[in-house]
């Protein structure tokens, strides 16, 4: 949001200087931005940190004096702390201080999670540990939806990810129910129209797909990860081509698809120990995809695709150098071929841009 406002401010000045925007129009746009801006000040940020610290203080105090506190008093402390958090959240919400309200809700949700563990210990309830995390995630999601707290829903997504990871490690198999929890939290993000939350959803499902390569086929199914990532990229490009109105969804789909593809390609190249020829072929294809990401980002003015391409290209080159440093001739040959390839692509891109500029001037 901050970056968007900065770019928009620069655009408004340019549009006004070119005579495309009136003073009245600029003032109306400024008022619209102020009315729609979320409360991202220092106070809410510090409030969130304070809520985390206070929640740990309550949990630490109760845990340290657990045996010295009567059973009924334990329950009173836990439930009173949780509901105090919700009451404070309601007070801040009534004043229109959404950031501080989110901080108080996070405190209550954190105490709820501690209560699950401590009450289970109190009544000697032996259960499956990930089930407690799932219950905690459900409580956080319910609080986030009922109280319209984006922070609580984001916390729920983190808990769902932890739940899925714990189950996967214990079972040593794909834990498909994770997708149900992921879908529920993602639906809450959509309902609350919180775009950063959708990025969290995309990141979580990307991690799930990447993990498939390390679980399926005894941990050697990274080709599937590459295929799924490329499918996401192609889907995003198809959306942009045939449904321009959905352009907002294109950037994250393409971006996370590229990230997933790159993660799978890195595992294939440096985790599976391919032969020299296979490594060069896979590395060349990976570099082509990353160069395509840079070209796509530049042509569509999407910085995320550009920087993802630059970062991936650098990581790929460094990883290749580290893997082939023992064979100087092979390393030199690869970098020579890669350099010539990139130079040829640069020349082709320059000629296309030059031809496009000439056609625009002639028209």
Structure overview:
The protein is an all-alpha fold and 363 residues long. The chain has a domain at 221-356. The protein is built from 14 helices and no strands. It has helices spanning 2-17, 23-36, 42-64, 71-94, 98-122, 129-146, 150-171, 178-192, 195-215, 222-242, 247-270, 276-300, 303-324, 328-362. Helix 5 (98-122) runs antiparallel to helix 6 and helix 7 (150-171) packs parallel to helix 9. The longest helix is centred in the last third of the chain and has 35 residues, at 328-362. The two termini are 38 Å apart. The mean pLDDT is 81.
Low-confidence stretches: none
What's the pLDDT, averaged over the residues?
Answer: 81
Q: In this structure, how is the largest beta sheet organized?
A: none
- The number of helical runs is 14
Tell me the radius of gyration. 26 Å
Helix content: over 70%
State the shape: flat
Structural descriptors:
single chain; 363 residues; mainly alpha; 14 helices; 84% helix; 0% strand
Short description:
The chain has helices spanning 2-17, 23-36, 42-64, 71-94, 98-122, 129-146, 150-171, 178-192, 195-215, 222-242, 247-270, 276-300, 303-324, 328-362. It is mainly alpha-helical and 363 residues long.
